[in-house]
Amino acid sequence: MRIDVLSLFPDMFTPLKQSILGKAIDKGALDFHVTDFRDYTENKHNNVDDYPFGGGAGMLLMAQPIFDAMAAVEKQAGDKGHVVLLDPAGRKFDHHVAEELAQKEHVTFIAGHYEGYDERIRELVDDEISLGDYVLTGGELGAMVIIDATARFLPDVLGNNVSADEDSFQNDLLEFPQYTRPAEFRGRKVPDVLMSGNHAKIAEWRLKESLRRTWQRRPDLLEKRQLTNKERDLLDDVKHE
């Protein structure tokens, strides 16, 4: 998968080249590029923003640098990819949007700054995404969150490809509790079932605990999920314990 970002602050994306994503980039599972669209300005002061027509507070990103930076990405990559605009008015990002983006061969993020965008920039855009009902100083942090969450679904990015399948929000359930050694730590014991070797019992315990955690912390997720008869029975047990 190729990911491009148009940003005024390329250095902000340095952390993405560390840890798991850094390893994915090194082995070619992820092709990552950041373009500073200030490099494509045509005015002598290298300005990328200007005052809005009609008045109003703040400055707007100009169309020209974004259009020309996007043309440069398209020339280098062969296409502009699925273009995502980071914008508070966009659809809310979640686990399912990350899975959807991971199916794309090429995604390009426009990470804006200042008050907003010249509306003509939206002509380049295929998708508008927001992290939530709040406003950040720029789109860089939002882009990094989306890239990290999306990359987890790419083949060979995680050390264990099963990990993403068992994460919280997969199938609209929060992840079950997990434990590692030692089996007892300062009087706190690991549940016996996890050391029983009985895989069927372990799977049932994990499902029940996922249902318990989801019901206690995010009951709204259960409204989205079509529970099986077994899941209903386990959830009833949880509610009556």
TrEMBL record:
<comment type="similarity">
    <text>Belongs to the RNA methyltransferase TrmD family.</text>
</comment>
<dbReference type="InterPro" id="IPR023148">
    <property type="entry name" value="tRNA_m1G_MeTrfase_C_sf"/>
</dbReference>
<keyword id="KW-0819">tRNA processing</keyword>
<dbReference type="InterPro" id="IPR016009">
    <property type="entry name" value="tRNA_MeTrfase_TRMD/TRM10"/>
</dbReference>
<dbReference type="InterPro" id="IPR029028">
    <property type="entry name" value="Alpha/beta_knot_MTases"/>
</dbReference>
<dbReference type="Pfam" id="PF01746">
    <property type="entry name" value="tRNA_m1G_MT"/>
</dbReference>
<feature type="domain" description="tRNA methyltransferase TRMD/TRM10-type">
    <location>
        <begin position="1"/>
        <end position="224"/>
    </location>
</feature>
<dbReference type="InterPro" id="IPR002649">
    <property type="entry name" value="tRNA_m1G_MeTrfase_TrmD"/>
</dbReference>
<dbReference type="InterPro" id="IPR029026">
    <property type="entry name" value="tRNA_m1G_MTases_N"/>
</dbReference>
<dbReference type="GO" id="GO:0032259">
    <property type="term" value="P:methylation"/>
</dbReference>
<feature type="binding site">
    <location>
        <position position="112"/>
    </location>
    <ligand>
        <name>S-adenosyl-L-methionine</name>
    </ligand>
</feature>
<keyword id="KW-0808">Transferase</keyword>
<comment type="function">
    <text>Specifically methylates guanosine-37 in various tRNAs.</text>
</comment>
<protein>
    <recommendedName>
        <fullName>tRNA (guanine-N(1)-)-methyltransferase</fullName>
        <ecNumber>2.1.1.228</ecNumber>
    </recommendedName>
</protein>
<keyword id="KW-0949">S-adenosyl-L-methionine</keyword>
<comment type="subunit">
    <text>Homodimer.</text>
</comment>
<keyword id="KW-0963">Cytoplasm</keyword>
<keyword id="KW-0489">Methyltransferase</keyword>
<dbReference type="GO" id="GO:0008168">
    <property type="term" value="F:methyltransferase activity"/>
</dbReference>
<feature type="binding site">
    <location>
        <begin position="131"/>
        <end position="136"/>
    </location>
    <ligand>
        <name>S-adenosyl-L-methionine</name>
    </ligand>
</feature>
